[in-house]
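forwarding from the other thread:

> can someone predict this with zinc ion?

sure thing
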Amino acid sequence: MSKQDFYQLLNVSKTASKDEIKKAYRKNAMKYHPDRNPNDKVAEDKFRSMTEAYEILSDEQKRAAYDQYGHAAFDQNAGMGRGGGFGGFHQGGGDFNANSIFEEMLRGFGGFGGGQSGFNSAPEKLRGSDIRYDLQITLEQAFEGLSEKIQFVTNDVCSSCKGSGGSKDSKTINCQTCKGHGAVHFQQGIFTMERTCQTCDGLGKTISDPCKPCHGQGRTRQQKNLEVKIPAGVDNGTRIRMTGEGEAGLRGGGKGDLYVYITVKPHKFFKRAEKDLYCSVPISMVTAAMGGSIDLPAIDSKAVALTIPEGTQSGTQLRLRHKGMSAIKSAYRGDLIVEIKVETPVHLNQKQKDLLTQFKDLEKGNSNSPQSSGFFTKVKNFFDDIKGAS
Ligand SMILES: [Zn+2]
Ligand SMILES: [Zn+2]
């Protein structure tokens, strides 16, 4: 079964903001909503796919998982990593469960939401959160890849109780707040709602003698030191997932993941477009006219020779194959595209002026400067036409 890309479905870019995604979804959902397209199977399918795409892309964690693994991240049968598929990403539901009227309306339509967001006691609720770590690197580092030591403070496994949350003789007892149900009921308007019990986090059980250092949580605030391996070719927005390096779960629950978000600093000389690099190089009028060769520093800090053909014009782009950026999981580098800027000489001395005057006298009009000669002929014709017409 091949599924359409979620970004394509909603017609947004891979870097679209949450707001852009929401807007795109609303627009499409309004268009394809079954109430507006009764008995239209195609519209209904489209509406469902878009809703699914929105559910994933509107949630930061789910989106990160999707970006890394594609549809496989949410396919329970795909057997990714931990038992039970990609468990952690079903928590919360992010913006999607927001009580906006529109989304309530969608939920009323059925097909999603209701079934999935039903009350779940137990392990998923105890998993630690995923963590985002922002890392800024240079373009040279992005080219070569690097190993970076990072530090951050998070909830990590309590060393005293090894995460159980209980002291040595502690027993597990029924939670007093929810009487062991894991959930409590409360009234909202005419509805009776169910909510996870906050005392036991939905477990229905609490610990008789909680561990002192972590107050029974099984985790404490600690500084974590990690080494992140960043592959060559990363770009702005690349996310590197480090499984199990996020927050520790409550009372020994599963660990969250760490996502390292890469930002590449702007470079003084090169601009990047995926695998290709662009730069602008000034050359003298003489080199442009007579041709020559110049040495450029490439991103790998090796010099690369650029041949300037005779008669090169300002704005000409010269391409150096495989002298551009590296790319993730690819042996091939992109190209380096050099835009030539011909510099007009300034501060001429008398001898230079004399030589240029001689040059002017020798100039062969059309054949030396085809563009400018042609240009003035065109302008002349233009004015002649106006005169002729009036
Ligand atoms: Zn402890
Ligand atoms: Zn409880």
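Residues 354-389 form one domain. thats all i got for now
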